[in-house]
Amino acid sequence: MFDHGDPRTVIIRYWENNNDLQAGVFILLTTSVIGLLLRQWHRQKSKKIITTTNNRISELKSLLPDHPQQALESIEDLSQENRLTFIEGLVSTEVYEQLRHKTQTFADQCRTLIEQQRKKFVMDTLLLLDEWQASLQTDPETALQKLKQIKQQYRDMLLSDQVDIEAYVKLMNLTLISLMTLAPKSSHDSANSTSKTKI
Question: Is residue 167 within 8 Å of 117, Cβ to Cβ?
């Protein structure tokens, strides 16, 4: 087999004379390098998105105690951005699932706090209305001033996203019903007292 010289020379000559082999090896090497670069780029892109998501959640945690509704809307926006990134093929399924778990967990925390604050708001409002109803019968003028304060409190909480519009409307209706049921009685008692005084 080696009667005609160094086998390395034969291999080199075979390589030089075989254009198809050269093209095949070139394509294989190029594809491997491109694949390696793409994997590296995807890893860097995934790291960046994970870091961005973690940083954003950390920022939103400071917003959570006082403005859970705003925090919830922001985390939902971030979740949608990550979803679009996944659809565009910029992150793997595994990375997207990690991101989705992080944003979903924080969103659940927001919803839990919103519900807790809503229940507390309703209970506090009912206590305020009880006090207001009691004062309406003894001191109508002061009670009406108190009602204005309660309404302003509702409005401020609505504007600061501490309650949603549905809860705001329900509670405003509750104060209106209380006013309609107690105010006429108070006026009637006042009128009776005036009549007796005249008599």
Answer: no
